[in-house]
Amino acid sequence: SPRRFCLHPGLSEDLVGTHPPGAHSLVAVSVGYFLEDFVDMLCNQKLHQSWELLFHHSVVIVCFGIAVLLHQYVGFALVALLVEINSIFLHLRQILLMANLVHTTCYRLNSIINLGTYVVFRIATLAWMTRWLFLNRENVPPATYAVGTVGMAIMTPMNIILFYRLLRSDFFK
């Protein structure tokens, strides 16, 4: 989180080996959450409805799992968790849709906040992470670099497509 960068300035210089106390546990708990959500979707949703999220969760589980097992790239995983701030508003949107509250001020306000946090915490964070990976490619082992590059190559287009769908659904009906 941004607070972590203020309290632990070394983190902004070393996302590979440096991480504040509790960060490793946070990333490990996140792996557990994504695993649980993955299994829940497999058991309770049709594959054609959830394949994108299952794919997303698979990438996150692999990337975060590497950070947890190696005790490296935990700082990079912390940056990636900034993306989840937007999930609050994505989930609230889904709840409002299920409650048939689409034509309410609450839904409209959430749509605006959702898109704003989407740009800041998803698009900008993924762009920053891609840039960091590119700029640090010589300091990252080839296998880890490959996993990170593939992860970013999967997540970035998925998030751009979802952004387009949100724009189209909530603002250009």
From TrEMBL:
Residues 1-173 form the TLC domain. This is TLCD2 protein. It comes from the Eukaryota. The lineage of its organism: Eukaryota, Metazoa, Chordata, Craniata, Vertebrata. The keyword Zinc does not apply. Keywords: Membrane, Transmembrane, Transmembrane helix. One of its GO terms (biological process) is regulation of membrane lipid distribution. It comes from Rhynochetos jubatus. It is found in: Membrane.
